[in-house]
Amino acid sequence: MNNTFKEILSNRRSVRMYTGEAVPAEALDLVVRTGLMTPRGRNLPSVELIVVKDKAALEFLSECRPHGPGMLAGADAAVIVLGNSAVSDVWTEDCCASMTAMHLMADSLGLGSCWVQIRGRESKLEGKTAEDVCREFFGIPENYRMEAVLSIGMPKLKNEPKSFDDVDLSMIHTERF
Ligand SMILES: Cc1cc2nc3c(=O)[nH]c(=O)nc-3n(C[C@H](O)[C@H](O)[C@H](O)COP(=O)(O)O)c2cc1C
């Protein structure tokens, strides 16, 4: 288990290969609750989640785009992050705050996870987006937008930690661009 927030940030990596072992239920529960702990524009309840454990549904998600979601076939669980566009105009930002926090919480608990983008991506079916096909499969109402999915499993392969010393300082501007 990582201790400080600095260690959590260093150790967090996208994990796309899983052992196939079950994710402990308490750990998954904590990750999911984390998704509703994050800041929200105007404190509006714009984010809702679908927890997916069913293998056929995970397989479906792994095929909902031509590239990018393949690791979901080997995941033990996924969390679909939905933004209610009827509730808030900053649902995208709210969803991304949830995604980031869940990804970090998963890593800090020793789980492997990866962000899979859905909004703005095409499906394998001509004229249908990844969001369209998932909306149909999961019965997502029209006013809910599907931002992304977090795939979760016990990590098989994880990249090296990142170092704060390796941050590209040319990307940080002081006072003016
Ligand atoms: C908005 C966003 C969308 C992403 N979409 C995908 C995706 O569809 N498939 C995937 O394998 N990784 C995806 N990632 C993970 C990135 O590829 C990953 O964060 C990046 O390569 C840096 O690697 P690291 O997370 O291990 O530091 C996404 C990350 C973000 C923030």
Would you give an account of this structure?
This protein is of the alpha+beta class and 177 residues long. The chain has a single domain (23-156), classed as NADH Oxidase. Helices cover 29% and strands 20% of the residues. It is built from five helices and six strands, in the order H-E-H-E-H-E-H-E-H-E-E. It has helices spanning 5-11, 25-34, 55-62, 91-108, 130-138, and strands at 17-18, 47-52, 77-84, 112-117, 144-153, 155-157. The strands form two sheets. A four-stranded antiparallel β-sheet has the order 2-3-5-4, sandwiched between helices. Helix 2 (25-34) packs antiparallel against helix 4 (91-108). The chain is globular, with a radius of gyration of 17 Å. The model has no long low-confidence stretch (mean pLDDT 97). The structure holds flavin mononucleotide. Flavin mononucleotide is lined by residues 13-14, 16, 68, 114-117, 159.
Can you give keywords for this protein?
177 residues, binds flavin mononucleotide, 4-stranded antiparallel β-sheet, NADH Oxidase, two-stranded antiparallel sheet, alpha+beta
How would you sum up this structure in a few lines?
This protein has helices at 5-11, 25-34, 55-62, 91-108, 130-138; strands at 17-18, 47-52, 77-84, 112-117, 144-153, 155-157. With 177 residues, the chain is α+β, with helices and mostly antiparallel strands. Helix 2 packs antiparallel against helix 4 (91-108).
